[in-house]
Amino acid sequence: MGSATTQALAATTTALGAASGVDLDVARELFAVARAVGDSSQLSGALADSAAPAEARRQVVAGVFGTAVKPTTASLLTTAVAQRWSSADDLVDGIEELAVRAAAVADPASDVEAELFSFSRTVAGNAELELALGSRLGDAAAKGALVESLLNGRASAATTLIAASLVRQPRERRVRQLLSRATRIVADQRNRAVATVVVAAPLSAGQSERLTAALSKRYGTPVSLNTIVDPTVVGGLRVQIADDVIDASVSSRLADLRQRLAG
What we know:
Elements: H1 3-18, H2 24-39, H3 41-47, H4 54-65, H5 71-82, H6 88-106, H7 112-124, H8 127-134, H9 140-151, H10 157-166, H11 175-189, E1 193-199, H12 205-219, E2 223-229, E3 237-241, E4 244-247, H13 250-262
Parallel strand pairs: 1-2
Antiparallel strand pairs: 1-3, 3-4
Helix pairs in contact: 1-6, 2-6, 2-10, 3-6, 4-5, 5-6, 6-10, 6-11, 7-11, 9-10
């Protein structure tokens, strides 16, 4: 990610925090705009052209989307296109990230991170489903409808919107990659870190609480746990937060012992 994009993302996130009237309709419109811009190299190129005056780019937004979106959506888009992005693809990613953040803001009571993680595990455990959602040949709207049917009654409206929207605009990305990125964005929007914990057996409620408290203290921020049960770790656990990995599993210690004996 270029420095220009990093600054642009910071600006759009700040604008979202200051915006009023952010609801799921705003998030839905932002996802639709990301699809439209991503599907048109001419439009994405025009909106990401830093050589063009910011006012000209804002006029393009007004001319293309006009009154088709809510005022809050239009205001956020205006802020987005006024920024300098490292590439047209980064602009599309930025609008998509803005949509994910808006969904998180619109549904603050739901545990969107956990629901997205759970759906990601469902996809990972079903090769047929992963193929159906990830195939380049499938109809985008049908993929979104499939996700909506799978999550109906099982996940919040925000989670359903995010997951169904992302599978409609994969842009060469794997489904699990899309869901993992969305999970991190939602956690960041809510000022939390996401820890993926791999254990041999499910953690009890008390164990989860103690681990959450310990990790939150270590990293200086609230931590949300996503747990994967994998018998191959034998015992102990493996924790990953961003690029930081804490491996206290028995399998890791055995592998280390074998390596020492062999070396």
